[in-house]
């Protein structure tokens, strides 16, 4: 089984990326494969059908890689910072590069991080999008705050709040359970 985690922060080394790393470790502890696609490290061009703006080759390659990973994934996790009470624009743009064929009847996990007041609203907004893409957004979700993370000596963030660590384990158990017991194969 293969998974994909899309990280939608505009900041490299984001809290959302640290959460994705924690989730990746959990998934790998179940001997399942997962790839993190961090949009701050592999940016995509704004979706544009006008033909008036040349797209640099590295951006085209990033978009193609994302499409391939999404098409092959058995489950997808969407991670976003809270930007203006919702998910980030770059995550929406990444989703606009994908189609229903990438999401249809696949379990989708939703996680976000806020720097201000903790909010799960970005996840409620993403739930609507996942439905439109015919994915199955699992009920458990994770909404953290910057204070749930600490820094290592090298300056990178890690998820340090033990309640969220436990929730992350349950979240992954749920996604893998959906993916492993999918009754929807014939509907894909
Ligand atoms: C454009 C923008 C809008 C933001 N809007 C909110 C907001 O509405 N509520 C909030 O709690 N934090 C807001 N923030 C702060 C981010 O949630 C905060 O920087 C958080 O640490 C981002 O997580 P990350 O490190 O995963 O990118 C905003 C940040 C940016 C750049």
Tell me what you see in this structure.
GO terms for molecular function: FMN binding; oxidoreductase activity. Keywords: Flavoprotein, FMN, Oxidoreductase. Belongs to the azoreductase type 2 family. InterPro entries: Flavoprotein-like_sf, FMN_Rdtase-like_dom, NAD(P)H-dep_reductase. The chain has a single domain, classed as Flavodoxin domain (Rossmann fold). The protein has 6 helices and 8 strands, in the order E-H-E-H-E-H-H-E-H-E-E-E-E-H. The chain has helices spanning 15-29, 57-72, 89-96, 100-103, 121-132, 162-180; strands at residues 2-7, 33-38, 75-81, 107-114, 136-137, 142-145, 149-151, 157-159. Strands 1, 2, 3, 4, 5 and 6 form a 6-stranded parallel beta sheet that branches. Strands 7-8 form a two-stranded antiparallel sheet. Helix 1 crosses helix 6. The longest helix has 19 residues, at 162-180. Bound molecules: flavin mononucleotide. Residues 9, 11, 14-16, 81-85, 113-117, 146 line the site of flavin mononucleotide.
């Amino acid at each position: 089984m293969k998974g994909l985690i899309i990280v939608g922060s505009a900041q490299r080394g984001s809290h959302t990326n640290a959460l994705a790393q924690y989730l990746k470790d959990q998934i790998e502890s179940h001997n399942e494969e997962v790839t993190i696609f961090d949009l701050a490290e592999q940016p995509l061009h704004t979706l544009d059908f006008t033909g008036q703006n040349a797209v640099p080759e590295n951006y085209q390659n990033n978009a193609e890689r994302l499409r391939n990973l999404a098409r092959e994934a058995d489950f997808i996790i969407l991670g976003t910072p809270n930007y203006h009470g919702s998910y980030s624009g770059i995550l929406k743009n990444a989703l606009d590069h994908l189609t229903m064929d990438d999401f249809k009847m696949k379990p989708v996990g939703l996680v976000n991080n806020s720097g201000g007041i903790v909010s799960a609203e970005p996840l409620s907004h993403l739930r609507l999008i996942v439905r439109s893409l015919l994915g199955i957004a699992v009920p458990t979700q994770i909404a953290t705050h910057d204070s749930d993370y600490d820094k290592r000596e090298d300056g990178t963030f890690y998820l340090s709040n033990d309640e969220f660590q436990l929730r992350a384990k349950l979240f992954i158990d749920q996604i893998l359970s959906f993916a492993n017991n999918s009754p929807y194969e014939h509907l894909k």
